[in-house]
Amino acid sequence: MGEKHKLLILFATQTGNALDAAERVGREAERRGCGARVVSVDEFDASSLPYEDTVIFVVSTTGQGDAPDSMKVFWRYLLQKSLSQDWLEGVHYAVFGLGDSGYQKFNFVAKKLDKRLSDLGAKALIERGLGDDQHHSGYEGALDPWLSSLWNMLNQINPKFFPEGLGTVVPDMFLMDQPKVRIEYHDVDNMHLPLSTTSDLKCIEMRIQRARSMCLGKFSHNIKRPDCFLKMIKNHRLTRAGCEKDVRHFEFEAVSSGIDYEVGDVVELLPCQRPAAVDAFIKRCNLDPESFITVHPREAEIHFLDVSVNASNFPIKLKTFVESTMDVASASPRRYFFEVMSFFATAQHEKERLQYFASPEGRDDLYQYNQKERRTVLEVLEDFPSVQMPFEWLVQLVPPLKTRAFSISSSPSAHPNQVHLTVNIVSWMTPYKRKQTGLCSMWLASLDPQETPAWFHKGALPPPPPTLPLILIGPGTGCAPFRGFVEERSMQSRFNSTAPILFFFGCRNEENDFLYREFWNYHSQQGGLLSEEKGGGFYVAFSRDQPQKIYVQDKMRENSKKIWSLLGEGAAIYVAGSSTKMPSDVFSCFEEIISKENGVSRESALRWLRILERAGKYHVEAWS
Predict the structure, then answer these.
(1) Per-residue confidence at 291, pLDDT binned at 50, 70, 90?
(2) What is the pLDDT of residues 131-165, one digit of tens each?
(3) Using one digit for the tens of pLDDT, what is the confidence trace for 493-525?
(4) Cβ contacts of residue 156 below 8 Å, gap of 6+?
């Protein structure tokens, strides 16, 4: 088959999901006899796009409709005004997006890309596919039927894509190739290992950097060394003891370099896995925890990300590698993990069950067994004892141990060299009555004072200037960044005049989960930053303290005149909290308020809000 009949699959990913989806498209193509190249958009020359025959795009949407970092240069190129309407004439394309319908700009990147490609003259093979994290099967609920349509259309426009015919599908086990990585074991007695004279923190820093630099493309920005190490100095429960919710206030101070952040920023922490779980995984997989390894790409054209001192060249203890990079006891494996497991199962009943789970017919049952129960890699491996997967496959397929991002709930002006977090300690009961807990939050709740690596970066909430009026909506732990905002503006007000703040907070019960009650009440008192005397206000919705539920939107409606008045003074809107329904409900409430108070239609109110967004005065930070 000629090169022109080889599919080009371009992906843009932030967390790795789009890469997984793109690789699946590539595998499915090859099972049908169609060659495929899977390439990240940041490794593709956008100027060569007109010379491609057929391109499949798999792109994720991050934050509030943002493109992944890896796509930004590619997207800027496509937006050039010098590109003509027939620049991509003759190019066929298809777009599959990964998003979350809990966010207002659901799959915004895929939609924009689809429109831009069409505007430049390319022809869509099929309607774009929109994967949804809210679907009970995740993005695969949309990917399966989309792929079926894609193969049919490709076969219609050019049967040469499938030289053996579209009906010929080779089972994955017959295409099982070598894993993407190669493990090299080292005799450390005959080697000089670095770090023998370095400090403990430096040793930890380089060990983390070295381990994570070996993982091909699994980690993006935080492959770099930690910005600093933090030591916990306070762990205080905010919710009432015995209450269903356990929300904690954590305080950390820097123990290495100083802390450098602004209000609205985000800190990422790398959680520690339970030692017993790591030991159990190593034992189950018949691995030697004391062996020293390096991990290398099997393909010559794959290159590691460049890290200082070429950290990936130095051997690392296998147990350290597992602890630092492989999420063995928290994340659920993906469907391809079950496909590969079926190849290595020696018990026939296990092989058949794994093959069923990996098939389209078994997708819903796999969801019930795996995702809905949140089974971990370790639990899955223990359920199929005849499977002995080589370590190379485990390194490739076990979900990466990801850092967890938290909105910072403190002001650096009010708390020099400290960072505060507001964290919900996650635990739940699965449908089969198995108690599961969040890896990072539970680790934080039980953390003894110790050094924790941290990375700081900008979030979706830019720090406002002191003269900018603010309307803040932050129910539950969404109040976290706004605690920092109020602290910062309180410090600024000591020396300069500051603009007013309206803050709408919500929780279930006044007595159980009124987070930071004393703090808000203090700033709401006469002359306080949130007081009516200062032009501000603090309004709380207790959703469960009366027969009829009351939410922040209800409090917003009660104070619609104040909101409209402050918007008239040029206020910016900041929204933070759960990504399920809250952001879209709040946006709709603002539409209603603007329509009512300004005497215009809902359509005009919506246009008004869109102008506010484009002016950088409507910000949302939401999390699932």
Answers:
(1) very high
(2) 998 887 788 889 989 999 999 999 998 888 888 87
(3) 998 999 999 999 999 999 999 999 999 999 999
(4) none
Inter-residue long-range contacts of 214-218, CB under 8 Å, 24+ positions, other chains counted: 214/294, 214/295, 214/296, 214/304, 214/312, 214/316, 214/321, 214/325, 215/295, 215/325, 215/395, 215/400, 216/180, 216/181, 216/297, 216/302, 216/304, 217/16, 217/19, 217/40, 217/305, 218/16, 218/325, 218/400
Angle ∠(539,543,544) on CA atoms, nearest 5: 135
The Cα 489–Cα 532 span in angstroms is: 16
Q: Provide Rg for the chain, Cα atoms.
A: 26
- How is 500-542 classified by DSSP, letter by letter? -EEEEEEES-TTT--TTHHHHHHHHSTTSTTSGGGT-EEEEEE
First-to-final CA distance of the chain: 45
pTM here is 0.85
Nearest-angstrom CA–CA distance, 312 and 184: 12
Cβ-based neighbour number of residue 435 at 10 Å: 8
**CA 585 centroid distance within chain:** 22
| Higher per-residue confidence, 470 vs 307 | 470
Phi-psi region of 217 (alpha: psi -120 to 50; beta: other; left: phi over 0): left
Beta bridge pairs of residue 620: 575
What are 186's two structure tokens?
């080292």
